[in-house]
Design a protein that fits this description.
alpha/beta, five-stranded parallel β-sheet, about 40% helix, binds nicotinamide-adenine-dinucleotide
Length: about 450
């Protein structure tokens, strides 16, 4: 197909010879690692972001994403292979553009496509023949052909002939020491076969394994299946944790033992709820689109209910733990350990820890937190009315609170110091394991401490 198309031939040969100029729109958790990987592969890469602070950092040769070493950004910038700008007019001189902007939900749980649309409009203003555009932002099936293709074709250029349009979902797993952008297989779907070929060629410069699929809709759906799979299985194991709590069985022991099955089982772990930019959000992109087709996505809705109730459940557990010492949540002091949405990262987006803190504060507790990855928590981020700063985890600090609640099990915490100094601990991540003491209450596991008996009124 491409042999017939001079635009395709020219672009392919520029990609193969590494003369292609690549652009990445949105230099966040997804965009910066991708830009760096393309630059490592020998392409000349320009990042475009509306956030002038990120552009300034890249231009100064510094990284702000933990998985991307500053030394890499500095070396690539010095070699003239990586730069950044807020100005979309650079698109006029680019051969390829990958769109990595946010796709959040509105309060109504409908997709908020405003970032994608605004980025695409800016790109369309500088679209030129022979250009490849790939959307990477997670989105509902149909976005590329229903939203982007008409927007770009309104310029008079035609997808598959004059320019090339594809979707390829990002699979970044922040802090994963084994899998990174390069060695994680990349699914690619094009609007036409030529579009798929162009996108596959671009990624092949920087990524070990390309997985072509037949359409952009399939590629969009692949990402939603992956994230819905996680949301539903986490919902299942969270429900099992609530069940085990009620039945006096240790859910963590159950999952660990079930994991010894060498086939047909994959462990998921309970916790205070879903967090991050993907798992709590993406399945609702799918259920929203399914509704348009008259289909009710019941697993997604149910998992949403179970997972969404977990922060309240953990807050209730803090109340139960305080109760054993004849204390109320109202007026108690609670130290929250770990507020990023998962272990060993700095990202607090959608973190369930913030919901637990918010609920406890609403019930009258005073809240302090410790998280070496999150030095400051803005007031609006936890709807707590005040900005908080992480406190150092000293023995005195631990001891001065009525209860410590472990919300994210960062490796950096000294858990033996927590066990030794805290009067009461609620462990929502099994960070302490079984047998850490009668003052430890684990989510989904039997409590060992009996409540202190009420003081009898004098007869
Ligand atoms: N973070 C992850 O682990 C992850 C994993 C897989 C997929 N995704 C998906 O990738 C997409 C991006 O996520 P992220 O985590 O990198 O987001 P992010 O918020 O870290 O980065 C997005 C960047 O886009 C910029 N931006 C917003 N609108 C823009 C515009 N119109 N023009 C130029 N720049 C603009 C923002 O300033 C920001 O720097 C989302 O759709 C997300 O669901 C994220």
């Amino acid at each position: 197909m491409s042999a017939m198309n001079p635009n395709a031939n020219a672009l392919l040969s520029r990609i193969h010879s590494r003369d292609a100029r690549a652009g990445v729109v949105g230099l966040g958790y997804v965009g910066l690692p991708l830009a760096v990987e393309f630059a490592h592969a020998g392409l000349r890469v320009t990042g475009i972001d509306l956030d002038s602070r990120k552009v300034a950092e890249v231009s100064a040769g510094r990284s702000y994403i933990p998985d991307v070493p500053t030394a890499d950004v500095a070396a690539l910038r010095d070699a003239g292979r990586l730069d950044a700008t807020t100005d979309f007019s650079v698109v006029g001189s680019l051969d390829t553009v990958n769109i990595c902007v946010p796709t959040p939900l509105r309060k109504t749980k409908d997709p908020d496509m405003s970032f994608v649309v605004s980025a695409a409009e800016q790109i369309a203003a500088h679209l030129h023949p022979g250009m490849l555009i790939v959307l990477e932002s997670t989105t509902y099936p149909g976005t590329t052909v229903e939203l982007l293709q008409p927007l770009f074709e309104a310029t008079g250029l035609k997808a598959g002939q004059d320019f090339f349009l594809a979707f390829s979902p990002e699979r970044v797993d922040p802090s994963n020491a084994t899998f990174n952008t390069r060695n994680t297989p990349k699914v690619v779907g094009g609007v036409t076969p030529a579009c798929a070929e162009m996108a596959g060629a671009l990624y092949a410069t920087a990524i070990d394994t390309i997985v072509p699929v037949s359409s952009t809709q399939v590629a969009e759906m692949v990402k939603l299946l992956e994230n819905t799979f996680r949301a539903v299985n986490i919902g299942l194991v969270n429900e099992l944790a609530l069940m085990c709590d009620r039945m006096g069985i240790d859910v963590w022991e159950v999952v660990t033992a079930a994991s010894t099955k060498p086939f047909g089982f994959m462990p998921f772990y309970p916790g205070p709820g879903l967090g991050g930019h993907c798992i709590p959000i993406d399945p609702f992109y799918l259920s929203w689109k399914a509704k348009e087709a008259g289909f009710e996505a019941r697993f997604i809705e149910l998992a949403g209910h179970v997972n969404g109730a977990m922060p309240h459940y953990v807050a209730d557990k803090v109340g139960e733990a305080l109760n054993t010492q004849r204390k109320a949540v109202n007026g108690s002091s609670v130290l929250a350990l770990g507020i990023a949405y998962k272990k060993d990262i700095d990202d607090i987006r959608e973190s369930p820890a913030l919901d637990v803190m918010h609920v406890l504060r609403d019930r009258g507790a005073s809240i302090v937190y410790s998280d070496p990855h999150v030095p400051v928590l803005p007031a609006r981020a936890w709807a707590g009315g005040v900005e908080l700063s992480s406190v150092p985890l000293t023995a005195e600090e631990i001891a001065r609170h009525d209860c410590v609640v472990i919300l994210t099990n960062h490796s950096a915490f000294d858990y033996s110091a927590v066990v030794a100094s805290a009067p009461l601990i609620v462990d929502s991540r099994n960070a302490l394991g079984a047998g850490a003491g009668n003052h430890v209450f684990r989510l989904g596991a039997p409590a060992h401490a009996a409540p202190e008996p009420a003081v009898e009124a004098a007869a």
